[in-house]
Write a structure and sequence with these properties.
It is a single chain. The chain is an alpha+beta fold and about 500 residues long. The longest helix is centred in the middle third of the chain and has 22 residues. It starts with a strand and ends with a strand. The protein contains 14 helices and 20 strands. The chain is globular. Helices cover about 30% and strands about 30% of the residues. The strands form five sheets. Strands 15-16-17-18-19-20 form a six-stranded antiparallel β-barrel. Strands 5-6-1-7-8 form a five-stranded mixed beta sheet, sandwiched between helices.
Length: about 500
């Protein structure tokens, strides 16, 4: 049986600033860009005492309160680096430590203490010691111990106390009265469940599973089963420090971007021979920049395929620093630069054509450059077995490889042309006039404009999926309006004299 401790860190960005000595004033808030401008994302006790809450617009808050509010800009990368250091410290309780992911919607960590709690005098003593040391270190946190990560998170984030110990096998009893938001569901799903009166986990667990899955998908049932231990939820513990690392100190601190890039190039050149002897390449790198005043900045760089080339790594570091701009904040300079390979992969040697670039190299280089320039994860579309066009594809991480060599199923080559843009849901076309009851439309109104059809091709009948409830066959037409716009329309079901035809616009051709 697994036993997991969850540590939910309250307002972690403010805690990080306090511990680094960068924000001694109070009340203190951290703000980040959001809808309509800057919004509060973290608050200290003084700011909460003024009635402020995360998510409020900063301009409205300043106009409402009558005392000075000290605001610092959000720095997610520094927050993540500080959380990683805290995870390393928590490894003293048990080796299996995992930081929160996107699903938790906040900052915190999990500790798998199965088989290790007796070293601290038992689970209760371990929990007391962990909570006490965090409190003495001025790290506000809520901690809970349960059988599963989902159960521990629900108790820590939404439980009635700051410290909760759920005995083995008692997860269902402790979770029944907690809100459904404790299951780490997206806000839309939580709002939909509340509209149905399903506000508590117990009420959700009592419902028939079939209707819930058809209405809300698999996510609510998966999260519920994971929290109650019916389905496994493996954690991804932090890897041990990798042997592929190098660091360089500078007697005269550096601060220019060109100097940092040159240092990264030299460090990768030092690591590359070790990777080559092991037959490996770097899939992810962390560049740590240590300032003279003791602060450190960590930049994580992902690569689409295992890499050992110092020049390519230096180019990616340069793109990442270009995106940071003034946000790098060298202060009085960096006295130490360290480069660590955080993930590796086997490098396969393939015979290529003399003088030609290996297949996929340019695609991989483009994927890496875009990821560093845009600062976000890249995805690609892959086919999925479904009759409905809106469900016939899925988004997968783009690893830079040639899609034709991917392990996913190939795109079907027998389909008629598909539009470049397909709506997630068909938009109604009104006042449709057709020359024949079962023929293509000649005139219709869509998006408050009337469209006259100059040419039409079809129909292409797409059948309903027998394994899904509801829905019927659709007749699709490719049409070109007199204004030149090319659209993809469908009639929902075949023509029938006893009911009017319902038409929808489902896509736009280039």
């Amino acid at each position: 049986m697994t036993r997991v401790v969850c540590v939910c860190l309250s307002d972690w960005p403010v805690t990080r600033l306090r511990r680094a000595g960068l924000a001694p004033e109070s009340p203190l808030a951290v703000a980040a860009d959001g809808p309509g401008g800057l919004r509060l994302v973290a608050l200290d006790a003084g700011a909460r005492a003024l009635g402020l809450r995360p998510g409020e617009p900063l301009g409205r808050v300043r106009a409402r309160i009558g005392v000075p509010l000290h605001v610092r800009p959000a720095d997610p990368e520094a927050d993540a680096a500080a959380l990683l250091r805290l995870c390393r410290w928590a490894g003293g309780y048990a080796p299996g430590v995992s930081p929160f992911g996107p699903a938790e919607g906040g900052h915190g960590l999990y500790i798998d203490v199965a088989g290790a709690s007796h070293l601290r005098g038992g689970e209760a003593a371990l929990l007391d010691d962990l909570a006490g040391r965090l409190a003495r270190g001025d790290v506000p946190a809520r901690v809970a111990l349960a059988d599963t990560p989902g159960g521990a998170f629900a108790l820590a984030a939404h439980g009635p106390a700051d410290r909760i110990l759920a005995p083995p096998g008692a997860a269902a009893m402790h979770l029944r009265d907690l809100p459904v938001a404790a299951l780490r569901l997206d806000p839309g799903t939580v709002a939909g469940l509340r509209r149905l009166g399903l506000r508590r986990i117990g009420a959700l667990d009592d419902q028939p599973r079939g209707p819930l899955a058809r209405r809300f998908g698999e996510a609510p049932l998966l999260r519920l089963d994971q929290a109650l231990g019916r389905r496994p939820e493996p954690l991804a513990p932090l890897a041990a420090p990798d042997a592929f690392a190098a660091a360089r100190g500078f007697l005269d601190p550096i601060g220019r971007q060109a100097d940092v890039v040159a240092a990264a190039r030299g460090l990768m050149a030092e690591i590359a021979p070790r990777l080559e002897r092991a037959g490996l390449g770097a899939c992810a790198l962390r560049l740590a920049l240590h300032r003279v005043d003791g602060l450190a900045r960590a930049l994580d760089i992902g690569l689409s395929r295992p890499e050992r080339c110092p020049e390519r790594v230096a180019a990616l570091v340069s793109l990442r620093l270009d995106r940071l701009g003034a946000g790098l904040d060298a202060g009085f300079g960096f006295e130490t630069v360290a480069l660590t390979v955080t993930a590796t992969g086997a490098v396969t040697v393939r015979q290529g054509v003399l003088g030609a670039e290996p297949a996929g190299e340019r695609v991989g280089a483009l994927a890496d450059a875009l990821a560093q320039r845009l600062g976000r994860r890249l995805v690609r579309l892959a086919p999925r077995e479904s009759h409905r066009p809106e469900r016939a594809e899925r988004a997968l991480p783009w690893d830079g490889a040639d899609p034709s060599t991917s392990a996913t199923a190939p795109w079907p080559d027998h389909l008629p042309p598909r539009p470049l843009v397909i709506f997630a849901q068909g938009e109604p076309a009104r006042d449709v006039l057709a020359a024949a009851p079962d023929g293509p439309p000649r005139r219709f109104r869509w998006r408050a404009r009337e469209h006259r059809v100059a040419r039409a091709e079809g129909p292409e009948r797409i059948a309903a999926e027998w394994w899904r409830a509801g829905g019927g066959p659709r007749d699709y037409y490719r049409i070109e309006c007199e204004a030149g716009r090319r659209l993809w329309l469908y009639r929902d079901g075949p023509h029938a004299p006893d009911r009017p035809a319902a038409w929808y616009v489902h896509g736009i051709f280039p």
